[in-house]
Amino acid sequence: GVRVFTATGGPGTLRAFEIFPAWAGARVPVVCAFMTRGVNSPLSIQPDTIEMAFMLHTGIVMFHAETAQDLYDMLLKAFVIAEKPDVHIPVGVFADGFFVTHTREKVKIDPAEIKLPPPYNPYSSPVPVMDMENVPVRHMRDPFVMKSNFISYAAHASWQQEILAAAERARKHIHKYLGGLVETEK
Asked: What sign does the dihedral 169-174-176-179 (CA atoms) show?
């Protein structure tokens, strides 16, 4: 019943990849900062956006911050957008590793403008909170396709469409808080 924030980058994103679609499937409004960098060996802090390509079909709304100021602003606004009852899916804020993460840049933080929404209320969620008997969480315990479980599979398929619809409903909030989108993918 609290706000959740986490961050990852590079190989850490790949190690955690299994959980990202589960966040969207369970409709949890997690905010995650992704510091995109090379996924290679030996260790690299050079920028690379391959992680963004991997994340495109996970159900997470994705923002890309090009500056430290963008990163700061988008992270605060990501909570507002993710927690809207008509959206209620995770938001990932992506920033270029090295250029944003390992260089110095001034960030304007005006105390008068810092204002988070009221404390997160999990009971405003459009779906039951982690209810093992109802979608979407039921799909975490049931096999996807079994002859005896066709109804559950049909519910799973319709739920995937609901995640896409929730991302579409996020557009009006993105426009309000971030000034709109440059590119979208359908």
From this structure: negative
CA-angle at 171, arms to 167 and 176, nearest 5°? 140
Largest CA distance in the chain: 59
Q: Whole-model pTM?
A: 0.78
Torsion from C-alpha of 19, 24, 29, 33, nearest 10 degrees = 50
Q: Render pLDDT for 124-164 as a digit per residue (tens, 0 to 9).
A: 777 766 666 666 666 666 555 555 555 566 666 777 788 88
**Alpha-carbon distances of 184 from 12, 31, 170, rounded to whole Å:** 26, 19, 12
State the Cα angle at 184 between 181 and 186, rounded to 5°. 150
Peptide bond into 42 cis (omega under 30): yes
Torsion of CA 83, 167, 90, 94, to 10 degrees: -120
All domains of the chain in start order, with CATH: 5-178 (3.40.50.970)
